[in-house]
């Protein structure tokens, strides 16, 4: 069965970088790695996705290991609004399989 | 460009009643996915539909739950004879094509009394 491992929780100080790790050892060569985040009482919000090489967008960067068995979401300067649950989702087939995610707390 | 819309945002039902949850995908999107989220848990896939077709319903309970996505109008998730265990947040997501990035709606929070 597909398995994704993320820390249950992490803390960061405001305006510091945050590195959120994810292990996805059973991913296949054609499955994209997606990251979403969910703020309280809201739907998941798309953050970033990638296949093999590192990706950057206005929200974050995604660093993908060469063997694709792990990835790291990087928030370059955490703000209080970044406090959320972050989900790492390897796309197995056509469906997204959500794990429990990492709850990120940002301290002022 | 309006995002994914869901209504109602909150729904209260008594045990045994029916619940109808609606999802209007983003403009240009013809693929809809429904998920259920229990408190303090991640989202669980329920069903994937394309216009007028159910593609994958492997996550749907076998009884009382049904979903449709008609040619015209929103996708509907229907729960008959609700029980307290159906209380959860129900999210839908949409894509323009299969296996694309999914965009989620704000969810419907169902409370069964």
Structural overview:
The complex is a heterodimer of chains A (108) and B (113). By secondary structure, chain A is mainly β. Chain A is built from no helices and ten strands. Helices cover 0% and strands 48% of the residues of chain A. In chain A, the strands form two sheets. In chain A, strands 1, 3, 4, 8, 9 and 10 form a six-stranded mixed beta sheet that branches. Chain A has a four-stranded antiparallel beta sheet with strand order 2-7-6-5, with no helix packed on it. In chain A, β3 and β4 form a beta hairpin. The model of chain A has no long low-confidence stretch (mean pLDDT 90). Chain B has strands at residues 5-7, 10-13, 19-24, 31-37, 43-50, 53-56, 65-68, 75-79, 88-95, 103-104, 108-112. Chain B starts with a strand and ends with a strand. In chain B, strands 2, 4, 5, 6, 9, 10 and 11 form a seven-stranded mixed beta sheet that branches. In chain B, strands 1-3-8-7 form a four-stranded antiparallel beta sheet, with no helix packed on it. The A-B interface holds A 32, 34, 36, 42-46, 49, 87, 91, 94-101 and B 4, 33, 35, 41-45, 48, 55-56, 91, 93, 98-99, 101-107.
Number of beta strands of chain A: 10
Shape of chain A: globular
Which parts of chain A are unreliable, with pLDDT below 50 for 5 consecutive residues or more?
A: none
Mean pLDDT of chain A: 90
Residue ranges of chain B: pLDDT <50 for 5 or more in a row? Answer: none
First and last CA, distance of chain B: 37 Å
Proportion of residues in helical segments of chain B:
under 10%
What Rg of chain B, in angstroms, do the CA atoms define? 13 Å
As a percent range, the share of strand residues of chain A is: over 45%
Largest sheet of chain B: 7 strands, mixed
The largest pleated sheet of chain A is described as: 6 strands, mixed
> Portion of residues in helices of chain A?
under 10%
Number of helices in the DSSP assignment of chain B = 0
Q: Report Rg of chain A.
A: 13 Å
**Can you tell me the overall shape of chain B?**
globular
Q: What do the pLDDT scores of chain B average to?
A: 94
The secondary-structure class of chain B comes to: mainly beta
Tell me how many strands of chain B there are.
Answer: 11
